[in-house]
Each structure stands twice: as structure tokens, then as C-alpha cells.
Amino acid sequence: MQTEAYAKVNLTLDITGRDERGYHLLSSLFATVSLSDTVTLTPGGETITMSCDWPFIPVDDRNLCIKAVRCFFNELSLPEEGLHIDLKKRIPVCAGLGGGSSDAAAVIRLLCRHYGVAETDPAVHRIAVRVGADVPFFLKGGLCLAEGIGDILTPQPSLRGYTLLIAKTSERASTPDVYRVYDSLARSAALSTPSFLQALRRGEDIAPYVSNHLTEAASTLCPSVPRLKAQLISLGACAAEMSGSGSAVYGLFREEKTARKAKKLIDARFCRICRFV
Hints:
Elements (H helix, E strand, L loop, with lengths): L1 E17 L5 E20 L4 E5 L11 H12 L7 E6 L10 H17 L6 H10 L3 H6 L2 E6 L3 E4 L7 E6 L6 H11 L7 H10 L12 H7 L2 H11 L4 E4 L6 E5 L2 H8 L6 E5 L3
Parallel strand pairs: 3-4
Antiparallel strand pairs: 1-2, 2-4, 2-5, 5-6, 7-9, 7-10, 8-9
Helix pairs in contact: 1-2, 1-3, 2-3, 5-7
């Protein structure tokens, strides 16, 4: 059994506060894009095993795919059976594109198919939340308003007509480090998500409302972020922003030919054209 695990970008990311556990609360627009990993699940064997074509990716219990399997068996009170997960990676790591969470969601989808469990079963949502805050979104895909810690999802009208160019250098910063710097800055910023949604529903230009509260913090750790944003705008993007906690940056282009010209000129280790899915 095989499926694609699509990446996401954050078209907006507003930090709205913290909950009683100290977790940051979000109001963000998540959108899946055509950049993807390929996940293959093969039942059989005596244990849960995993392989990946990127040698530095852990293939033990540190990987969210393995965690997803164990949570699935536990939540549904199923006996743990042997299976093998094979992961073909194309989504860069430490990028804010959700690759690890999307891979885990793909494993959950394949397990649901294998065991005849409906993806709409409330137990499946509980499994996804246990694996990671972003995982429930990747079970839905498309464009969603994500609130809470990212697990409260409201589907939104489809967004089409744009070509995305995603770029990333070798710089990376961990999500905890980015949030730590964000907290140290102690600056408030206007919320963009409501204005983005209003423009989307009215069929107006959404480009002015693309934003990310974490960009300034991530930029202190990854100087390539503001550089790539400026380069994408100079090459014709109508908007450019960092995704998630970084360090990948995307540009929105109204014409694919402009995006393809920009791709040849971007100074980045990873540079890929994709679309919303």
C-alpha cells in the first residue's frame, strides 16, 4: 500500500497567546502543496520496521511514523503486528513544511485502509493529536484555518491560480529555538488571518495578508530567511513568506512562467516549483 504525503505552507501564522500548559496558541492558514514524500506500508514480519532513502532520518521510535503505528494499535486496542514502512523523502527537514507530520498522517491513512477503519472515526483524530499537533491537518489536507495548538481545523474554500516557489538554504533552526527567540522579543503584531479569510471569501487579492509572526525570530537564527524573501519579491512574487517556524521560504506567483524564471536565479540549496492541492 502506498500514498503521497504532501507538504504544507502557512499562508498566515498568528500567535494569539498561550494555553494553561504553556503551549503557544495559533490562528493560521495551512495549505497543502504538491511537494510530497512517498510512504509505502507493507504488512508482515515480526516487528515494526522502517527504512528511508535519506540516511540521516531516524527510523526507530524517534520517527513520527513509528509513533503513529504504535498510537494506532494502542488507541484501537489492536494487537501489535509486524509491518514495514518505507519512506522516500523529497520534503526538506527543519523547513516548516510539515514533512514529518505529513508522513505520520500518511501512515495513519494506510493503516485505516488496511484495517478497515474510517478516517472520520473520532479515534483516528485522537491518534493524530497524540502523534503531533500538525498531524490532524494532514489527514484533511487542502486549505484549513488551524487554531488552538494547530489541531482545531476549519476547512476553507480552495485556493487556486497561484504557482509557488519554495526555497531553502542549508541553514536550519529547531522549532523550540525559534519560539524561544520569539518569546524573548516580546513584541506584539497585528493579526493577519481574519483579513486573509475575508479577502479569500470576497474573491479579493490575498497577497497583502500573507504573514508569519515567527519570521523575525527565525531570521535571527537563519539570516537566509529575509534574504530569500527579498529575492523572491524582486523576481516577481506577489508575496513571499517563511513557512511555519522555518527555514523554508515560499513565493506566490500569479504566472508560472515568472516562477520558472525565478527558480533559475534563486540562490538556495533547495528550490522547487509546486501548486496548491
